[in-house]
Amino acid sequence: MATIAPSRRVRRTPFSDGVEAAGVKGYTVYNRMLLPTVFRSIVEDYHHLKSAVQVWDVACERQVELRGPDAARLMQMLTPRDLRGMLPGQCFYLPIVDETGGMLNDPVGLMLADDRWWISIADSDLLLWVKGLAYGYRLDVLVDEPDISPLAVQGPQAETLMARVFGDAVRAIRFFRFGWFDFNGVSMAIARSGYSKQGGYEIYVDGTQNGMPLWHALMEAGRDLDVHAGCPNLIERIEGGLLSYGNDMTRENTPHECGLGKFCSTQTAIGCVGRDALLRVAKEGPTQQIRAIAIDGDIPPCDRAWPLMAKGKRIGQVTSAAKSPDFGTNVAIGMVRMTHWDAGTAFEVHTPDGVRAATVQDKFWL
Amino acid sequence: MATIAPSRRVRRTPFSDGVEAAGVKGYTVYNRMLLPTVFRSIVEDYHHLKSAVQVWDVACERQVELRGPDAARLMQMLTPRDLRGMLPGQCFYLPIVDETGGMLNDPVGLMLADDRWWISIADSDLLLWVKGLAYGYRLDVLVDEPDISPLAVQGPQAETLMARVFGDAVRAIRFFRFGWFDFNGVSMAIARSGYSKQGGYEIYVDGTQNGMPLWHALMEAGRDLDVHAGCPNLIERIEGGLLSYGNDMTRENTPHECGLGKFCSTQTAIGCVGRDALLRVAKEGPTQQIRAIAIDGDIPPCDRAWPLMAKGKRIGQVTSAAKSPDFGTNVAIGMVRMTHWDAGTAFEVHTPDGVRAATVQDKFWL
Q1: Are strands B26-30 and B354-360 parallel, antiparallel or unpaired?
Q2: Using the beta-carbon criterion (under 8 Å), do B5 and A27 form an inter-chain contact?
Q3: Given an 8 Å threshold on Cβ–Cβ distance, is B26 in contact with A2?
Q4: Cβ A8–B126 below 8 Å, yes or no?
Q5: Is the pTM of this model over 0.90?
Q6: Which residue of B has its CA nearest to A317?
Q7: CATH: 3.30.70.1400, 3.40.630.30, 3.30.70.980, 3.40.50.2000. Which one for B63-144?
Q8: d(CA B120, CA B148)
Q9: Residue B25: its chain A contacts at CB < 8 A?
Q10: pLDDT tens string A191-214
Q11: What is the DSSP letter of A11?
């Protein structure tokens, strides 16, 4: 396996010193920033995530900040989700689409105030799209990337650990809500959210210089909880059906194909750039859609789309796959044509190591 | 050193099979795609590049295609370089700026026809900015990423090798011009260009399926020329003063700070989005600028900005650095305040391994 070359262009994070001291073994690059992928082994990290608590450097979830009188209008231009009912202190998962209805990102949006939002982005330079629209429409809005770096605390012991560092009030934060908490005199947004199904928080660390002090505080406070440096876990996120932009969906796909129709209110999302393009698919439904897929046998790492084949015809593709210790099969995420997307449908998946049998599941594993 | 994790999101290229068979040892990620950084060793690759010929997988230079009646207008909106004199068959190096005059990319633009262009991009999702502007201004233009993957042939033997595969007509291609050549029945643009100072070509390979056949044809035809798989070489590109977007310049910098004022005709580039913001700096000049910098002693890999200090004050930063075998010093690229940018000025550079002496050079090394 090739190593990752050092350069400033692949940005370090405020937590990179901690990540390295913890013995990171694998990295990916996400939003032109380092994102750890493995510490001990993916399987060890997986079991630990499900039983203890981990601190994740997810600074690569960069923020796009919108601020000004037209911020709310611009936010609604970005997404077919109806934002009229959203209140400060709420997080919304947001399909972001272009004028053709193609997915540009699937971030979490945070409403800070009536005229101020953060968009906590997946892996694409959404900033450039938002800036382009704001400029083209001559909107009165500032669009920028602030010095905010998310640090996630995930796992069954996350609440206990967070309460020790930020006080018992963090226990009251509801799912996909956030509040403001003090660390070393700096106020930081803390949300009940994160890219796992094990529960936990994301701390929007304000100021690069506050990164390592908070990292150390969490590690110190969680020693008896077996806290460990961690990262989004490939196996666990597939089991939980957590999609990955760039893997499981791209600009080619509509939100409805990605199973995100429930986050779209295309009729009422007035102003959304992709609204016209999505009205028909919102009404009639997509012709292919994301499915949980179980794959038999041994499989290699999934570093490219694997064709799904039935009777010699391509009927979809798998884009994320890993062997699950807890479920005794290879868990996978794929896009499947409607002719073959019903639960129980069997077909072939063509991996670089050969053909394997695969079956559509009725839902994700957890 | 950590390895790079496999995932579809970090895209393979049409040439990845060849790169792997050639024993790639290091990768970076560039435009969410794999870019090799080292094959034998950076020093061996360097000497070979300067003496023989290499084939580079630079598919990560993705193309943004503009096509339609408003394509030329949109192109001029992107850059302070005056494009009125540009003709089909020409390549232009283009500073691309936002409404504040900040650099968004530094691609090579290819004019295919009066109403059709390719922008061969550096490391940012320029597509999203261009699409945002096109939508905001309701321009009649298609903006998309075609299935075009550049393959570079670089080194003193590049012309000989290319003539064997594409015919002697490639010898007549002038610097930063391109022509159309046939490979296996497919017409491909070939430009005299590339990210080295050793001379060579970039082939805009049309169609993923044509990647490996062309790779093999070049390797086969160049066997007696000692052709080898290669990649942009860190040392050689610093010696030659080839800037790297994301390393040596970011959205924080104007073209003039990057020493790219010679590519700007801010007065006459009517329609450029950043024109207003750049008029003053174009007239008065920047207060900091890119310089060639020599650094004494041993240095670590440069994976973050290294502060330049004089009398306890920060007067700039180094963003690319490597030990040069041919020039017997560490060659570096940095941004230096005007108080310290004259050739011969000495100051300190603070690397993670300690303080080193550094001196401004009057020009780059080759």
Answers
A1: unpaired
A2: yes
A3: yes
A4: no
A5: yes
A6: B8
A7: 3.30.70.1400
A8: 10
A9: 2-3
A10: 999 999 999 999 999 999 999 999
A11: B
